[in-house]
Design a protein that fits this description.
Helix 3 (47-55) packs parallel to helix 5, helix 5 (78-108) crosses helix 6 and helix 5 runs parallel beside helix 7 (131-146). This protein has 2 domains: 1-76, no CATH class; 77-162. Helices cover 64% and strands 0% of the residues. The chain has 162 residues and is mostly helical. The protein has 7 helices and no strands.
């Protein structure tokens, strides 16, 4: 499992078009390997793989790969995903807030779907997370509700909805 985690994180760092240090055939091979790894996941690999999936979302331009990452995340049990998301959101917010916003938006958009219970799980787990993490996440959610990913879902991820 450790090798899978390392490979997900390494190949998930999508080589950007402006990066001339990696030859084109290698770029394509890495990209295709990442997609292959994502497609191979069943959702039974455990929380460490869920964390690695979130950590793998590192590049600014993903060329569509991270939609496959999000589909892979959806194959894992909701509680595992939410626990990993809360754990990984603070560093993700600091390194590339757009992906953090996209993941939170996906969660907020689960209202009215079979995944809606993930929202209350998120709110409950967030309330029990370390104060510094909770503060970073709540501040980010507030910013995104004002002008960003969560403008259309104000209050959905707040403790008032628990």
């Amino acid at each position: 499992m450790e090798e899978l985690i390392k490979e997900l994180i390494a190949t998930g760092n999508i080589v950007q078009d402006s990066d001339e240090s990696v030859p084109w055939p290698e770029r394509e091979d890495r990209f295709n390997r990442y997609i292959e790894l994502l497609d191979s996941l069943s959702g039974n690999e455990g929380i460490e793989v869920v964390r690695a999936l979130i950590q793998s979302m590192q590049a600014e331009d993903d060329y569509g790969a991270y939609q496959t990452t999000q589909a892979a995340l959806g194959r894992f049990p909701g509680a595992e995903y939410i626990e990993a998301l809360i754990s990984e959101l603070p560093p993700m917010i600091q390194r590339n807030s757009e992906w953090a916003g996209e993941l939170l938006c996906g969660l907020a958009n689960s209202v009215g779907t079979k995944y809606e219970s993930n929202i209350s799980t998120f709110i409950k787990m967030l309330s029990m997370s370390p104060e510094d993490s909770r503060k970073i996440i709540n501040q980010y959610i507030g910013q995104q509700e004002k002008a960003g990913w969560l403008e259309h879902r104000k209050g959905v991820l707040s403790a008032d909805n628990a």
